[in-house]
Amino acid sequence: MGSEEGEVKLSRRWNAALQPVEVCGARGAHVRRHGRPSLRKALVLVALFAILAGAAPVASATKVGVVLAGSVQVFWQTMTKGIQRAALDLHVDLVMRNPSDGASLGTERNVQLRMIDYMVQNGVAGIVLAPEPLEDVATPVSITVPTVLVDRSSTDYNAISTVTTDNLAAGRTAALSLVPVLRKGAKIAVLRLSPNISSTTERENGFLAVAREMGWEVVVEAYVGYRFHETQEGVLKALNGYAGHLDAVFAPNETTADGALRVIEAMPAGDRPRLVVFDWRPEFLDALKRGVVYADVVQDPYRMGYLALETLVADLQGHPSRPRVFVDVVTVTQANMNDRAIRAVLAHYAQ
Questions:
Q1: Looking at domain 167-298, which CATH architecture does it have?
Q2: CA-to-CA dists, residue 270 to 76, 77, 346, angstroms
Q3: Which of 169, 230, 240, 303 has the fewest CB neighbours in a 10 Å radius?
Q4: CA dihedral angle for residue 125, residue 131, residue 132, residue 138, rounded to 10 degrees
Q5: Taking residues 266-272, what's their average pLDDT?
Q6: 0.70 surpassed by pTM
């Protein structure tokens, strides 16, 4: 199978999907055999009028594939909505296949390759991919249709463009939110997600860079898991491993943020560290109001998904694409949660 060899094969059949379709049928032949001349003339005039009115048959919709890295997290659900909106606006058909969240990091290694292979064999014109790491496969994999990466970069695939948050800068933004309230020597914890997920690794590294610059002491730095059911236990174990008082905790994605919130919320109010999280869930709003979450760096996955599909379709139409497209984040706090710009981003999560 192509995925075992690091190759995904597809004939260039997808070109046909971009070509005009000529439509004729048996009814026309029937008229020619049995219709009277006046009837034939009338039908010709009707057809000519339809063409002039713009009602002539058009090319069938381009079919594109989408493979994200999950579907349970609010982040992926919101990105899916952005992709679907772009598909409606750009008149393309979607074929979506997503593994369960974290599957590629567990028992279903390289599952995305099998999904891509299925789509390619079924004639998609291009792929939007949120890449999970590959194992025991020759890389970079060259998919034989144009591919746009979304949410994260990857050296495992050749791609025409990558649409992401500037994750290193966003990690720095998360740490900078703490600068006004932390002194030199402050004790902080960084809850890591996975060593081979580029997006969260960049955020963690950005946060740690500011911590070093500010003279904060990183007393906890631990991988706490990917899935919701495991992160709370991982966070509890990591934080309990430090006997002193923590001044701040950073969680770099939705699942680690959820686990950290549950653990810190259970602490006595006077012992709680300031919690800075990444991504958005509805319950984070209440936690911000109550001061359990100090700040939340929120991505815009809706816009990210929209731009990824838009970039792919533009390439299929012969337009050049930018190698990197960055989508801005916003930092949500008690003080600004009702600002118009903040509400605009959060509204995407509710659509």
A1: 3-Layer(aba) Sandwich (3.40)
A2: 35, 36, 30
A3: 240
A4: 70
A5: 95
A6: yes
